[in-house]
Amino acid sequence: MRPNSPIPADGGFDHTLALLSEGYRFLTGRFERFGADIFTTRLMLRKALCVRGEDAARMFYQPGRFTRRHALPPTTMALLQDVGSVMALDGEAHRKRKAMFMSLLGPLERQRLVGLAVAQWRARFAHWASLPSVVVHQEAELVLCRAVCQWAGIPVSADEARERTAELSAMIDGAASSGPRTWKALMLRHRTERWARALIDAVRAGQAQPPFDSALNVIARHRDADGRPIDRKHAAVELINFLRPTVAVARYIAFAVLAMHEHPACRERIAAGDDAWLTMFAQEVRRYYPFLPAIGGRALHDFDWHGLHIAKGTWVLLDLYGTDMHPAIWGDPGVFRPERFERHESSGFDLVPQGGGDHYAGHRCPGEAATVDLLKSAAKLFATEIVYEVPPQDLTIDLGRIPTLPASGMVIGKVRPRA
């Protein structure tokens, strides 16, 4: 962005319908059309300043600069985080709550989660041998839901695991849409919250005794910055905020299996046991395939950025997908090439599929490292423990749909153990 240069404006009264129909292309297409990494538009009858790129992410994730409150559509906020969650907090309240999340997602805790997921994968692999085909995305959601519930100290039966999986999946799928998809997701969200509140109540009443260091126990007994126990509703919300994002990793796993199918050399490198290369593969999956399109924030105070005065209350949208596909950062962003990460030293603001900046001080997703760990372990299992066929199917990725997937969900068939 050039200092004091005029900001391109997206003409017209309101572009909400265009956003809903264009999806991931809405912001990136306009950046390309304007030949700039900044423009203004109107969405939901509000003016929005839209930005992308490494420097824009650095500006956006400056601690204390933006609040997420009233910065996302109400239905999106309700399905993905909800009022009173860590994402909606600022200042000391956010720091205290975020520290709780980070304490539960350290290296040993992530290792335990991955181990539980691996056990679930192997059980599903054995079951798949009796089926003509399976949809990887659906199976991955069930695997991850069972694993994260066990990790969190939540006992679930097979039937309840399927019920919870369907609810959490609906929240993810309906968060950026409108109409029946969203209405169904909101209805299921209420049911999940009732279930989560009952779990919190049972722990506090002494009727349930989950492991001391489990997410369920830690959240139920957490005290906020004011020294008071977290409100039961908000405790239930935060419990869901451990479960739902873990289930969302299923999308990356489906994309990883697609990548191994379309780039067989990747599968061979993973099967060879090169962990460093596997990490590069996981990062390229997160960069290349669409996940979160953008994140919004409202300025908490006036500040200047490259000669532009941003007033308190300004609504800013950071294009996460556009930053991960920015040609000035990645050179050939439209090419799937894990080797680009071989000597890559991230600034913390260039690869932002789950946000940028510091995990402790800012609003960057606390589960990002767990996402990478779960993605790597799943890709390795698919490459080393089973063989399968990929039948003819529709593998197109609709960028007009948020969140997106291969149209088929990534179907594999004739699964059998690798000799």
Low-pLDDT ranges: none
Strands across the major sheet, in which order? 1-2-8-5-3
Q: Compute the number of helices.
A: 16
Assigned CATH architecture: Orthogonal Bundle
Quaternary structure state of the chains depicted: single chain
Radius of gyration: 21 Å
CATH-derived topology: Cytochrome p450
Largest sheet: 5 strands, mixed
Structure description:
- The protein is of the alpha+beta class.
- Helix content is 50%, strand content 11%.
- It is built from 16 helices and 10 strands.
- Helix 6 (107-128) crosses helix 7 (136-152), helix 6 packs parallel to helix 16 (368-384) and helix 7 (136-152) crosses helix 8 (158-174).
- The chain starts with 15 loop residues before the first helix and ends with a strand.
- The model has no long low-confidence stretch (mean pLDDT 93).
Could you give a quick summary of the protein structure above?
With 419 residues, the protein is α+β, with helices and mostly antiparallel strands. It is built from 16 helices and ten strands. It has one domain: Cytochrome p450 (Orthogonal Bundle).
